[in-house]
Amino acid sequence: MAQKIKALEEERDCLRQTVKTLSDKRVSREEVCLEDKGPESTDDTSSSSSTSSSSEDGHPQKRKHGKKKKEKLLSREKQLQGQSGTRVRTPEVVLKRYKMTLKAFKEEGSMNRAFKKVGVDRNTLALTAVVAELQMVDPDFSKSVPKFSPSEKLIDFSRRCQEVLTADVRSAINAKKSAGLLLP
C-alpha cells in the first residue's frame, strides 16, 4: 500500500512539473508576441505567471479570450468609420455605390452584411436605387430623363426617375432582380 501511495505521489509530481513547464513555455510565447505592444504587456505576462502558479495547486487555469475579440472589433469599427458618412451628390456616384453593394451582396449573401460592408444605410440605398437600376437596365432611357442639376437634391431626382418609369422598364428591372443581376 505504501508503494502505491509513493508511486501516485511521484506521478502527481511529474504531472505538476509537466504542467509548469508547458505553462512557462506558453508564457514565454506570449511575452515574445506581446513585446511589440509596449509596457502594458508586462502587466499581462506577470498576471499570466501568477495564474500559472495557481495551476500548481491543482486548480484549472483560466484564460482570457475577450481581449483579442475586442481588438478585432475595434479595428473593424475603425475601417467602417472611414467608409461611412460619405454624402453622395451625383447619379454617377449612386450607380457606383449600388454596384459596390451588389458585389458585396453576392459575396456576403445577405443584404444587411452587404450594407455594413459598403458603409451605406439601407434606407438611403433603397431611396436612390431606382436611379442606378434605371442606368443599369436601360442607359438610353435614363438619358431621356431630364438632367440632374447640382442644385437639385438627389432624392428629388430619384423621385422624378420613379415617375418617368414605363411598364416595360419596370418589367425589365424586375426580371433582372429575379435573375440576380440587381439587388432584390
Structural class: mainly alpha
SSE ordering: HHHHHHHHH
Radius of gyration computed on alpha carbons: 30 Å
- Say how many strands there are: 0
Report the average pLDDT across residues.
77
User: Between the first and last Cα atoms, what is the distance in angstroms?
Assistant: 77 Å
In short:
Helices cover 76% and strands 0% of the residues. By secondary structure, the protein is mostly helical.
Describe this protein's structure.
With 184 residues, this protein is an all-alpha fold. The protein contains 9 helices and no strands. The N and C termini lie far apart (77 Å).
SSE blueprint:
Layout (H helix, E strand, L loop, with lengths): L1 H33 L5 H17 L9 H18 L7 H18 L2 H8 L3 H16 L1 H6 L9 H11 L2 H13 L5
Helix pairs in contact: 1-2, 4-5, 4-6, 6-8
Which key features would you list for this structure?
single chain; 184 residues; mainly alpha; 9 helices; rod-shaped
